[in-house]
Amino acid sequence: MIYIIKQEARTMKKFVQKFRRAARDSKYEEQVLVKEFKREMNSVIKRKLMKVKISPKSIDQWYKCTTNLYIYWRVC
């Protein structure tokens, strides 16, 4: 079972690392992981994602996309 990992003030890289570890242990399906990941990232990065209309499909694509976007925008 995955426990709640909120991004809060963590960098996206740190958030992805923690989330990956929890996801690996959770045995959740891809769709559930994506939903949880999107829900727990901070609202600033969510707004940036909406503006650029990124639509990654897999959880690995989400990790890469959000990390790159975070670096580009220097969010939080």
Would you mind describing this structure in some detail?
The chain is an all-alpha fold and 76 residues long. It has one domain (12-73). The chain has helices at 12-26, 30-40, 43-52, 59-73. It is globular and about 30 Å long. The model has no long low-confidence stretch (mean pLDDT 86).
Helix-strand layout with pairing:
Blueprint: H1 12-26, H2 30-40, H3 43-52, H4 59-73
Radius of gyration: 11 Å
For the sheet with most strands, the description reads: none
Mean pLDDT: 86
Q: Provide the β-strand percentage band.
A: under 5%
CA-based shape: globular
User: How many DSSP helices?
Assistant: 4
Please give the domain count: 1
Q: Could you estimate the helical fraction of the residues in percent?
A: 55-70%
Decide which structural class fits the backbone. Answer: mainly alpha
Low-confidence stretches: none
Query: How many β-strand runs?
Result: 0
Distance between the termini: 29 Å
Q: Output the helix-strand order.
A: HHHH
Task: Give descriptors for this structure.
76 residues; mainly alpha; 0% strand; globular
Short description:
With 76 residues, this protein is mainly α.
